[in-house]
């Protein structure tokens, strides 16, 4: 009897895991969190990590064991720059970030782990390009004066709550110091998300 019960439980778990990965699904939610930004090191200056913020929305479409997760959020990035001449400057960037992530999820009964990777387009927001202009550039696929990164990450879902830790490796250089210098920005993000609804 105990063997039959254990076998039944294992079969139910296997069916649940398989259906969770095969049946197409859609989720949408909010996310917010903090980041640690760091410039790539050069011979002329060194940098230190400083905390920033991010907040926005995410969506996830899944099926056949994989999922596609586009996101849209505002990010504040802060870096301390120590120049060789002894001066210390603090650089701040605000951007509209658009990660396009491909990943997989394992788990059942509302608890699961996720692994993902993909490109991230970072559209600078400043006095000459506000949020509306940046969204227009996304729609027109106009990425002039913008930057790209590649994202690697993992997440944990518990019912409607999700926690994500990811690393963004800068692929293109971002200007600073009134456009006189440029460098790559690498970022660690820790975010908390909430699923508003799923289909």
From TrEMBL:
Signal in keyword set: yes
Question: Ranges for the Outer membrane protein beta-barrel domain?
Answer: 21-173
Q: What Gene3D superfamilies would the database entry show?
A: Porin
The protein's name: PorT family protein
Coiled coil (UniProt feature):
none
Domain of life from the UniProt record:
Bacteria
Leader peptide range in chain numbering? 1-20
- InterPro entries this protein is in? Beta-barrel_OMP_2, Porin_dom_sf
User: Which keywords are on file for this protein?
Assistant: Signal
